[in-house]
Specification:
binds flavin-adenine dinucleotide, 8% strand, 2 domains, flat, mainly alpha, 2 strands, 4 helices, two-stranded parallel ribbon
Length: 103
């Protein structure tokens, strides 16, 4: 069920077992797991149902440094190594590969 919190009475209390702030990849994954286990969960996400500039402005930033060529090369080498290892080992995740690649 979706509720626009702007329509919820001020100081209203919503009772739940788990409250997840942020419906990004991590939050949604966690919410699905909670649902699988029948655990009451409320998820809070900023903004409305449609994209709006006021919400986008919260994430506005500016670059203060440029990536140096070395870092770009290191990043590229990492992704090539990760993709190669991923292709070679069935079920091996990129996360697992990155751990072993960096020690
Ligand atoms: C430009 C860019 C390109 C990327 N490209 C890739 C890619 O190609 N492949 C890849 O694997 N990863 C990519 N990533 C990284 C990926 O987007 C992040 O790693 C991933 O989104 C992190 O997930 P998360 O759930 O931790 O956070 P997020 O996805 O950032 O989710 C956090 C959520 O919390 C909400 N939120 C924050 N504060 C509050 C609050 N106070 N109240 C309510 N809600 C709140 C936000 O609105 C947001 O929806 C990219 C990132 C960027 C910036």
């Amino acid at each position: 069920m979706f509720i626009d919190s702007r329509n919820v009475e001020q100081r209203a209390v919503v009772e739940t077992t788990v409250c997840i702030i942020g419906a990004g990849v991590a939050g949604i994954t966690l919410a699905l797991e909670m649902d699988k286990h029948g655990i009451d969960t409320v998820m809070l996400e900023s903004g409305g149902y449609k994209p709006d500039d006021a919400t986008r402005d919260l994430y506005r930033g500016e670059n203060v440094v440029f990536l140096i060529p070395m870092r770009m090369e290191a990043a590229a080498a990492f992704w090539v190594a990760a993709a190669t290892a991923g292709a070679a080992g069935a079920g091996r995740s990129i996360h697992g590969t990155s751990k072993s690649a960096t020690g």
